[in-house]
Each structure stands twice: as structure tokens, then as C-alpha cells.
Design brief:
By secondary structure, this protein is an all-alpha fold. It is about 70% helix and about 0% strand.
Length: about 100
Amino acid sequence: MDSGSHAPQQARSRQTMARLLEAAIAVIEAKGLAGVTIPDIASAAGLSTGAVYRRFADKDALIRTAFLQLLEASQVMNREGLSRDRFAGKSLSEAL
């Protein structure tokens, strides 16, 4: 988590955080970055606006955290999908 968020300690809190970040991405996809509001994200996650602000200092911190999570997931998928073992012994055309 970045400095504008509070890392959850309990399992239920981690689940809530995951739901909140998923909701943030869904709202961004639906409304565009300029149209995103904390109340919209809170509603999509099934949370109160206050619950969001208890976890994040502001909307920017929430959006940064959501994007960082997406980037980290993408990096993991790329590492797994592009591992050396997967392409060992294959020609370029076979690998493509």
C-alpha cells in the first residue's frame, strides 16, 4: 500500500480492501477517470463513504493503490507466461 492508504491487518479487512479496489477499477472502467467519485466506488463495493476514507486519505490514494494492484498482477502474469522454461527448446515461430 502507498502512504495514502492503511494496510488491512485482519482477513475480513483484506477482503473488504479487495472488494473496494475491484469496485474502484469497475467504476473507472464505467465512468472514466474524470467521472470517478468516492461515493460511487463506495456504493459499488457495498461500503459507506466513511469506510473508504478510513482506508484511504483521498480519492487519489485509492486510485493509485488500485492501479498499483493491477500493475502487480500484470507483472506476475507476464513472469509466469513468459518464463524461460515455457520457451526452452522452441524455435521463434513455435514460441510465437
